[in-house]
Amino acid sequence: MNTHTLSLPQIAVLATGGTIAGRAGDASKTAGYKAGVVGVDDLLDAVPGLDAVARIHAEQIASIDSKDMSTALWTTLASRINALLAQDDIDGVVVTHGTDTLEETAYMLHLTVKSAKPVVLTAAMRPSTALSADGPLNLLNAVTVAASNDAAGQGVLVAFNNQIHSARDVTKISTYAVDAFRSPETGVLGFVQDGRVEFQRSVTKPHTTASQFVVTEAWPMVEIVASYADASRVTVDALVAAGVKGIVVSGTGNGSIHATLTQALMDAVKAGVAVVRASRVGSGHVMRNGAASDDALGTVSAGTLNPYKARVLLMLALAAGSEDAVVLQRLFDTY
To answer: What is the mean pLDDT of the chain?
Structure first.
C-alpha cells in the first residue's frame, strides 16, 4: 500500500440489499428482478476508480428488498454505524439501501447517529444487471461525499443522481425514473459530479449529535391511516383495540380529516393514543390549527414531515417517554 493510498479517508460501506444489489435474467428489463442478491464486494468491484477516492471497509448488514425493512434492522444498522464512527480509523459511512423505504431509514439515522462524521445513503432505480445501471455511479458519488470534509456536520445525507439531499427533506417521487428523489420544499443541499462535492446550503434543524434521540430496541407500535372520501372508523378502532401507541394520519390537504375518522381519532386520544396529523399531498406543510382542530382534538401537527417520517419521529419520541401532546408538538416543531 503506497503513501497516497494510506492518506485517503477510510469509508465503511454497509450493504442492506435493495435494487442496487438486484439481479435480473434480462439486461433489457428493469422490472421483475430479484432485489438484494448481489453482495457488497461485487457492488464495489463494479465501481471503477473507487480506490482513488477512499479506502473501503465493507460489511454486509442485510440482503433484503427494502419494502421489507424492519425496526429490528433499523436498530442493528444504527448501532453498527455508531460503533464504526466511534473508531478513529473510520472517517465516514455509506449505506446501500433499497429506494422504497430509504427516506424512512435515512431520517431514523438522522435522529439517532451520534457523530458529526458523514453518513450517506444511496440506492438505485435499476438492478445491477440492467443496461445503464445507475447503482455504480450512485455508489461512487456516495463514497465521494462521505470522504468530503464539507459533508461533516450536515447530518445524514442521500446521494442520488448527482444530487445531495438531507435525510429530513428527501422523498421518493417516481416509480421508475433515475431521478426518483426530490426534496420538495427545500431543494437539494448540493451536488456531486466527477469527484467534485459542493454544498449550496446547510441543514438547520437539529440532528445527529444535537438530537436528543437514541436508537431503541423497543420500538412502540405506531401505524398510519389515511383520510379519503367516505372514510370509516374501522381501521382506527382496530388499531386502538390492538394496543397501538400512536397513529399518524395521512390527511387531505392541510392534514384535514374526514368527520367520521375525526371522531374515531378523538376516541383514540381519550384512550391514550398519540395522534399526529400529516398530509398525503406530497409537499407543503401541515399548520397547527389551534382551537379549531388540534387543541380540541388533542392532536399534533407533523409540520413538513410526510406521514412516513412523522411515524419515525413519533416512534422515537414515544420510546423516549414523550407522550403529552404539548411535548410532542414541541418535538415536531424542533426536528
So the answer is: 95
Amino acid making up residue 20: I
Residues 113 and 240 in one domain: no
Query: Cβ distance 22 to 118 under 8 Å?
Result: no
pLDDT of residue 31: 83
Mean pLDDT for back-to-back runs of 10 residues, the chain (335 residues): 74 97 89 92 96 98 97 98 98 98 98 98 96 96 98 98 98 97 96 97 96 96 98 98 98 95 96 97 89 82 97 98 96 98
- Does residue 329 sit within a domain? yes
Q: Does residue 77 belong to any structural domain of this protein?
A: yes
Rounded CA separation 142/145 (Å): 5
Instruction: Give the 3-state secondary structure of residue 145.
Output: helix
- Residues 275, 269 contacting (CB under 8 angstroms): yes
All residues at 6 or more sequence positions from 38 whose CB lies less than 8 Å from its CB, including other chains: 21, 22, 23, 128
The single residue listed with the C-alpha cell 437539494 is: 188
Q: Against a cut of 0.85, is the pTM above it?
A: yes
Residue of 3, 5, 16, 19 marked active site? 19
Q: Which pLDDT score is estimated for 4?
A: 57
Same domain, 180 and 284: no
Is-catalytic flag, 19? yes
